[in-house]
Specification:
Helix 6 (121-139) packs across helix 12 and helix 6 (121-139) runs antiparallel to helix 13. This protein has a single domain, classed as Amino acid/polyamine transporter I. It is built from 17 helices and no strands. It is mainly alpha-helical and 433 residues long. The N and C termini lie far apart (45 Å).
């Protein structure tokens, strides 16, 4: 039949796509941050997030199987709750990823400045260079190929595996024991909310479901495989950081730098300083590739939202020769640049910055799982969606004051869409009249 996607994705390829979608630069900074918040109890946070991934990933797998669409989670939410709810997903994604635009390159800068003992301001200079290069390249249509992105994902997995394996002989059982008490749940909850950033991406498989060889069977198998691989890698890294005590409690700049570059510290503790330097350089390369991919994908999201009259019309502009939404690229770069400046001026910590995309990401999953509970026909799928929805709701208050961010974004989004709709209606009436 014309227009039908041919099945070309195997179970193993699907698992690789899951791993590539979920594992990102966030894992480079979060293990140290969570260890500072909760100590060995952070292992409970990582384990809890891995368990939450099961109903979450399966909700989107069921949705992908029953409602195959390239639009992904925004399509599901719009189908379940209407156009305004679908618009919210687009805005949530855009603002969350725009925040990630400066967190990711700053991560690369922090790793390099930590291992070379440079002034922290150099991290911002490096981040600005990475961001500027990515924006310039995307503006002129120099997009990173899929093979390069696959290599970046492979590099991250390689770094994680090496860190885990090398750390095993140096782990100490006495520092790995959780401290079970009534007061532990608040730090465990806060650590879990930081970790959420590393688990975004389970919804990405939804748009690829029609391309599996046997979607009815293979999507679920790939989901199990993806959860298993991501879970082992993430929990292994948390064990490595906590077990080798590659983090420091305190407000000193050196302690904070160590916590933001904990994987480099693990390597330095196990092999030596040179291994930490190599890890930092690899982290810089990873962050460059991730930043470039972010700029490319999020600028196209802004362009798509504008085309659908859900964002200002000025961004509905495409350079035909380069096939690039150049105005949207400048918007993404400008927002990220402002974020870097604000972070530097107000001396904001990475642990504070991560809550911005996290609050929006969790809100996205709340809407997505609610849509799943309404749309999925299978009772098992409905149970997965309902479970994930309830767990996300329970987790959400732990983002603290950042809970206001999705509310503000929602008000701005709905306000703009209503204004744009009325404006278009008046314009059409004046033309008719």
């Amino acid at each position: 039949m014309s227009g039908t996607l041919n099945g070309s994705i195997s179970v193993w390829q699907g698992m690789a796509l899951y791993v590539g979608a979920v594992i990102g630069s966030g894992i480079l900074i979060l293990p140290g941050m969570t260890a500072v918040i909760a100590g060995a109890d952070a292992l409970l946070s990582w384990g809890g997030m891995i368990l939450l991934s099961v109903p979450l990933a399966y909700t989107f797998a069921f949705l992908a199987r029953e409602y195959p669409s390239a639009g992904g989670v925004s399509t599901f939410v719009e189908k379940a709750f209407g156009r305004y709810a679908g618009a919210l997903i687009g805005w949530f994604y855009f603002i969350a990823a725009s925040a990630g635009q400066f967190i990711v390159p700053l991560t690369g800068g922090v790793y390099v400045t930590y291992v070379f003992h440079w002034n922290p301001v150099v991290a911002f200079v490096i981040a600005a260079i990475l961001l500027g290069g990515s924006v310039t390249g995307n503006y002129f249509g120099l997009r990173t190929s899929g093979k390069v992105q696959l290599a970046t994902s492979g590099l991250i997995v390689g770094v994680l595996l090496a860190t885990i394996l090398l750390a095993i002989p140096f782990m100490h059982a006495r520092v790995l024991s959780p401290h079970i008490s009534g007061s532990m749940w608040e730090p465990v909850g806060r650590a879990s909310m930081l970790i959420f950033w590393s688990f975004f991406g389970w919804e990405a498989i939804a748009s690829l479901a029609p391309e599996f060889n046997h979607p009815e069977r293979d999507v679920m198998r790939a989901t199990w495989g993806g959860i298993g691989i991501v879970g082992v890698l993430y929990f292994g890294i948390a064990l490595a950081v906590v077990g080798t005590h590659s983090y420091a409690v305190g407000q000193q700049s050196m302690a904070q730098a160590m916590n933001n570059a904990s994987l480099a510290q693990v390597m330095a503790n196990t092999i030596g300083r040179s291994a930490g330097v190599v890890t930092a350089v690899i982290a810089l390369v990873i962050c460059l590739g991730t930043t470039n991919a972010f700029v490319a994908s999020i600028s196209r999201l802004a362009y798509a939202l504008s085309q659908e009259k859900l964002a200002p019309a000025w961004f509905d502009h495409l350079n035909e020769q380069r096939s690039t939404p150049q105005r949207a690229v400048l918007l993404v770069g400008g927002l990220a640049g402002i974020g870097l400046v604000v972070t530097y001026v107000f001396n904001l910590g990475m642990n504070q910055l991560v809550y911005v995309p996290n609050s929006l990401g969790i809100a996205t999953y709340i809407l997505g799982t609610a849509a799943g509970a309404r749309l999925i026909q299978s009772w098992i799928g409905k149970v997965c969606a309902g479970t994930a929805f309830v767990l996300c709701l329970i987790a959400y208050p732990f983002v603290g004051t950042f809970i206001a961010i999705p509310i503000v974004v929602a008000v701005l989004c709905i306000g703009y869409v209503l204004w744009r709709t009325r404006h278009e209606t008046r314009k059409n009436r004046s033309v008719i009249g």
